[in-house]
């Protein structure tokens, strides 16, 4: 054994001695090629590890056992739904057929209601596609009737369906076909139901990203790429804090966006406004939609929710961004420069696209 060990050290000594007596250009070339080979092998191993994670993990693995599912009944009103969403700190919920006199245990799944669906109907009913100030006033004048509308008339399509029997589908397929495979609209949640049409679980994008965050080492070098490396530093739309809330809601609807950064006169980031900020809005407060967005947030007593830091830097890594999103229960982070000017954004769906593209 000692002879073998001596031979190995001697061989290593001869190799390094040979490299150092080579001309500098040749020596540098050999070292560079060795480094490239090592780096390429490391990248391939990381990609293989990520691919294995997504292909061997199935939907059942990320489902929360005994998860409390908040559902709404089809004959509830819009106002009741908004209050229920606010009460449970959620932005959407499945809608079920309410039990009838003949059937006390209906629970039949009908669809998903989210704040964006309500916003779309509000815009269609009261505003059309115009941002004219006179039409905005119609919100206050006709809001009472709108808030009485039944949920059966306002069901959204922001959902993908999976039977319980499909629980073995790989996470890669769930992400591609379920969350990202809905055309130009991404699905933010997947409702899992049984053969009777009864909901048994719900999995969201946050659940998937939370799983990835727990297994961040499997992402390899992707986890340490920065927002700039990943292409999330780019021009995005922002609004001033004095924009009328109703007009902003309509703009979000027309642009098919869920949120927008709000900035001051110097374009410095202040906070994020999202359609979810409409949770808890009732007919008695509908006139708040005619106020500037910063006043709306304050009057809805939601200002404390916007004290959370929802930004990251251009050199923030994907690993750091995922940790912040999950620890603060956020759906997106705005990328800001040293002067707090918004220069980009990363969302949960962006992370899923990154991961699937790199696997």
Mean pLDDT: 81
Specify the helix fraction band. 40-55%
Coarse shape? flat
Low-confidence stretches: none
In whole angstroms, the N-to-C terminal distance is 43 Å
Radius of gyration: 26 Å
- How many beta strands in the DSSP annotation? 12
Along the chain, the helix and strand elements come as HHHEHEEHHEHEEHEHEEHEHEEH
Q: Classify the secondary structure makeup into a structural class.
A: alpha/beta
**Strand content of the residues, in percent?**
15-25%
In which order are the strands of the major sheet placed? Answer: 1-2-3
> Can you count the helices?
12
Q: What does the largest sheet look like?
A: 3 strands, mixed
Structure overview:
By secondary structure, this protein is α/β, with parallel strands linked by helices. It is built from twelve helices and twelve strands. Strands 1-2-3 form a three-stranded mixed beta sheet. β4, α7 and β5 (189-193) form a beta-alpha-beta unit. α8 (205-214) crosses α12 (348-358). It is flat, with a radius of gyration of 26 Å. The relative contact order is 0.12.
List keywords for this structure.
single chain; 359 residues; alpha/beta; 12 helices; 12 strands
Short note summarizing the structure:
By secondary structure, this protein is of the alpha/beta class. It contains twelve helices and twelve strands. The longest helix is centred in the N-terminal third of the chain and has 33 residues, at 24-56.
Strand and helix layout:
Layout: H1 2-21, H2 24-56, H3 59-62, E1 72-73, H4 78-87, E2 92-96, E3 109-114, H5 115-126, H6 133-147, E4 160-163, H7 171-179, E5 189-193, E6 199-204, H8 205-214, E7 239-240, H9 245-254, E8 259-263, E9 269-274, H10 293-299, E10 311-313, H11 318-327, E11 332-336, E12 342-347, H12 348-358
Parallel strand pairs: 1-2, 4-5, 7-8, 10-11
Antiparallel strand pairs: 2-3, 5-6, 8-9, 11-12
């Amino acid at each position: 054994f000692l002879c073998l060990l001596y031979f190995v050290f001697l061989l290593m000594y001869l190799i390094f001695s040979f490299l150092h007596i080579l001309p500098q250009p040749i020596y540098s070339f050999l070292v560079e090629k060795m480094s490239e080979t090592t780096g390429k092998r490391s990248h391939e191993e990381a990609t293989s590890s990520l691919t294995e994670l997504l292909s061997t993990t199935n939907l059942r693995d990320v489902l929360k056992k005994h998860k409390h599912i908040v559902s709404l009944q089809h004959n509830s009103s819009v106002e009741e739904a908004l209050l229920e969403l606010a009460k449970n700190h959620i932005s959407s919920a499945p809608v079920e057929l309410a039990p009838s006199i003949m059937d006390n245990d209906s629970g039949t799944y009908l669809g998903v209601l989210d704040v964006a669906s309500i916003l779309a109907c509000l815009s269609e009913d009261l505003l059309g596609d115009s941002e004219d100030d006179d039409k905005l006033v119609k919100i206050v004048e006709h809001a009472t009737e709108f808030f009485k509308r039944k949920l059966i008339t306002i069901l959204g399509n922001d959902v993908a369906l999976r039977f319980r029997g499909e629980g073995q589908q790989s996470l890669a397929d769930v992400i591609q076909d379920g969350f990202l495979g809905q055309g130009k609209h991404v699905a933010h949640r997947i409702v899992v139901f049984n053969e009777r049409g009864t909901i048994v679980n719900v999995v969201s994008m946050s659940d998937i990203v939370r799983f990835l965050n727990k297994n961040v080492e499997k992402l390899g070098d992707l986890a340490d790429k920065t927002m700039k490396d990943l292409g999330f530093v780019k021009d995005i739309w922002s609004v001033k804090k004095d924009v009328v809330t109703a007009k902003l809601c309509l703009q979000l609807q027309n642009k098919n966006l869920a949120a927008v950064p709000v900035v001051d006169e110097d374009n410095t980031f202040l906070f994020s406004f999202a359609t979810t900020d409409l949770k808890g809005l009732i007919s008695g407060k509908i006139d708040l939609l005619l106020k500037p967005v910063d006043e709306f947030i304050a009057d809805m007593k939601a200002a404390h929710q916007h004290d959370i830091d929802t930004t990251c830097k251009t050199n923030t890594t994907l690993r750091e961004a995922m940790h912040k999103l999950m620890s603060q229960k956020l759906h997106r982070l705005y990328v800001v420069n040293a002067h707090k000017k918004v220069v980009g954004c990363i969302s949960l769906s962006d992370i899923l696209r990154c991961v699937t593209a790199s696997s």
